[in-house]
Amino acid sequence: MNSFPIQPKYSKTQLLINDLKLSSSGEIEMFYSPHNEYINPSAKVMLVGITPGWQQMEIAYRTAIQALKEHHSYEQACKKAKMGARMAGSMRTNLIQMLQEIGLHDYLTVSHVQRLFEADCTLLHTTSLIRYPVLVNKQNYNGHQPSISKNPFLYEAVLESFLPELEQLKHPLIIPLGKSVEAVLHQLLDEHRIDGGKILWGFPHPSGANGSRVKQFLHNKAGMQKNLREWRD
Known about the structure:
Elements: H1 12-15, E1 21-25, E2 28-31, E3 45-49, H2 54-69, H3 74-85, H4 90-102, H5 104-108, E4 124-128, E5 134-136, E6 139-140, H6 152-167, E7 173-176, H7 179-190, H8 213-232
Parallel strand pairs: 3-4, 3-7
Antiparallel strand pairs: 1-2, 2-5, 5-6
Helix pairs in contact: 2-3
């Protein structure tokens, strides 16, 4: 990353290169990104997405490169990249709104869910089932085509990255973002790789491209609120 010049934005042709490619299987490619290297072991809540998208990857590189040029350590650069890239864009706005509506701020005893995304707050850890960005035919992987559970390359990536990461946190509240993440967690439960603990089922993926997001949220809202109240009490 030190070899990259500081730029206001990086292109796919700059970052989706063989030097940054970790592995591939057919049309599926996995690239390195620095932001999921930082893990917050003291977090009380763990938000779990599918895989970082291109926008997150670009922001993470931009932030980390800037930090390295300012002579921060690699660990500090990764932390700054995490703060800048996690659930970036409209997805973060949607996410905060829904988490506020179900009362996560009350569960954590904070004034507003927005507080969780501030740099000095240690209550939140955001991550992905697959730590590094996955692209299919150079496009963001949507979690469906192919299915994570049915694709050995993708499922092995989950086992190698998500499970060791989860072990570093002390029994957090896990909020899977969307049905694709839930399906994988159910499989991990069935295989006795994780325990049920506190998993908040029914939360939609916050992407603006998720057309059923509002409908799914309204349908499951009361149940999620009930679970949070019971866990808090």
